[in-house]
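#struct-pred
JK: can someone run the complex with magnesium ion? inputs below
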Amino acid sequence: MAEAQMKVSDEVAITIQNMNKWYGTFHVLRDIDLTVNRGERIVICGPSGSGKSTLIRCINALEEHQAGSIEVDGTLLSSDLKNIDKIRSEVGMCFQHFNLFPHLTILENCTLAPIWVRKIPKKEAEETAMHFLEKVKIPDQANKYPGQLSGGQQQRVAIARSLCMKPRIMLFDEPTSALDPEMIKEVLDTMIELAEEGMTMLCVTHEMGFARQVANRVIFMDAGQIVEQNEPEEFFNNPKSERTQLFLSQILGH
Amino acid sequence: MADQSTNSVAFVRTEEVPASPPPANAAGPVKWMRENLFSTPVNTVLTIVAAYVIFKIITGAFPWFANGIWNSQSLAECREILQGTTGGCFSVLSERWNQLLFGFKYPPELYWRPTLAFVIFLLAAAPVLFFKLPRKLLIVTALFPFIAYWLIWGGSILTPLLALAGVAGGYVVYSRFVTNNFAMGFFGGIIAAFLIWTIGGSILPDGTITDGPMQSVPSRDLGGFMLNLMLGVTCVSLSLPIGIALALGRQSSMPFIKYVCVIFIEFIRGVPLITLLFVASVMLAYFFPPEATVDLFLRVVIMITLFSSAYIAEVIRGGLAALPKGQYEAADSLGLDYAQAMRLIILPQALKISIPGIVNVAVGLFKDTTLVSVISMFDLVGMIRGPILASTEWNGVYWELWLAASVLFFIVCYGISQYSQWLERQLATGHR
Ligand SMILES: Nc1ncnc2c1ncn2[C@@H]1O[C@H](COP(=O)(O)OP(=O)(O)OP(=O)(O)O)[C@@H](O)[C@H]1O
Ligand SMILES: [Mg+2]
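RT: done, structure tokens with the ligand placed:
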């Protein structure tokens, strides 16, 4: 792995300060503080229900936070729709269940947002889309519908669809956990390639091999809090907190 | 499996099983009949009974059709010709076809006008129904309401032109402002249209023309199947967009909009259509300024539209609810705004899911247009019950008339149903 290529700059991409979120009376996220520099690859792990999805969904305002601040690329996330739109157009997101648009072809899935949000001419958008579809290695499926593709192919289309918006940050919420082992690899390869190109990435995943290989920081969450964060080597070989140790022994132990 | 020895579980495939075509079904009519009609004793008995019933119906009805009289002047004359044998008196259709289709007051020398409007309607509907046709044809669709109004009601061409100018003006204002703010564009457009109509309406002379090819025909002279078609087409095409708006409004996060929509839908659904029609025929006039005599046709259109849009809204709400939440989230995460997400992602899918329900409402609505006969409008049913059956010549010709009415309605409704099934097949893109 070309570790040296994957530089982290000093420039800050995301700042989360003292952020709290409640679902009704349930305190899901508690005092989250996190700074992400441009080019960082962060893997977030933790037991089910610990608030990992909620955390990354707050970053592009799919969920609203009630206290604290989130700043993405210098834009403060508030209830102001203009800011939200700005942040969303700079942050790409991939979901566990792909969420492709089933009534549109693969190509149309990829060109829709560039055409309507970025106002790019159709032709140019299609060229960009084909470029990214080649990158995720499925240009030949461009005119099929999502329902005709395998899960792994669909997830790669979803990644390409996000990339077509030329995002500066990518969020992944368990992108491989709905896939068969054979397909997991093809999606992870795509993500590794992205990381090598210097994309800022936040990944919720349980693929510890991926974390070791790509991440420069691993964050462990439990009960809505960040319990531990460290470089992958230290994190996996020498976890400090008891909860992390327990979690790691459970997922690596068999 | 030939190479698998019987006393060992270990198995390695040594040769590929070649793909082969599925076994050919031993076909043939005899086999089909044995499988489908005479497979069990009960089935055999049912087949024989059914065959007997069908035989009775056909032999009973056949002479009635075959001996049918098409050219007499009255029922009495029919009976004279038939001399007691069975036979239908279809002459009522050949003598009164014009009344069945156009009503009894529409000037016969002007029948070409609604007929032409109907032909243009087919042209206008084509690009909406079949989206593979050239998009340029949509111009006909856009102009159709104005052309049809002028052809059917006649009068000065300035009236439909003014209406068109209002719509065009409203659209210009809308497209000017909509880039900033949807609400501003929407209401700005509506205000502009109303301004043009009021100012134009006060300048324009009265458009009534008393004779000539474009002479005015008042609404109360419309009738027959034409009236059913006009009500059906107008109300379906108006209630679809209103229904979509109501369904989206009901999902809105703004409580005011949400409750207006909920109350409207629940109220309208809780009231029989016939009461709404009575309201239209008597009471709705109170809501308009006294000097504006609002046309009965328009009042009925408003009521039927309100009624069916509430139903369509509920059908579409079902479609919206069936969409996974991930579709909204994906649209949001790509930066699409509300209007874009609805138009490009949510509604195409929700409407596709709702097609059977919408068609159900549309077919029901079309048949319900016959209810206007109760408030003394002479649609197809009104014509049969009133002027035709009450006439001395045709008093008592029930079967032939109601059969003809059923056939007319059946053709249209069956057509709609077949179209919707075709559309569903066209839109199928494999499962999610
Ligand atoms: N819309 C919601 N309303 C109420 N509670 C919610 C909602 N969404 C999530 N929660 C709760 O918030 C907590 C955190 O959920 P979240 O989805 O962030 O967990 P997660 O860490 O992503 O878990 P998993 O690994 O299972 O995906 C859970 O206890 C969940 O039950
Ligand atoms: Mg999750």
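RT: quick notes.
The first helix of chain A runs from residue 52 to 59.
Strands of chain A lie at 12-23, 26-37, 41-45, 67-72, 75-76, 91-94, 169-173, 200-204, 217-222, 225-230.
JK: thanks, will look after standup
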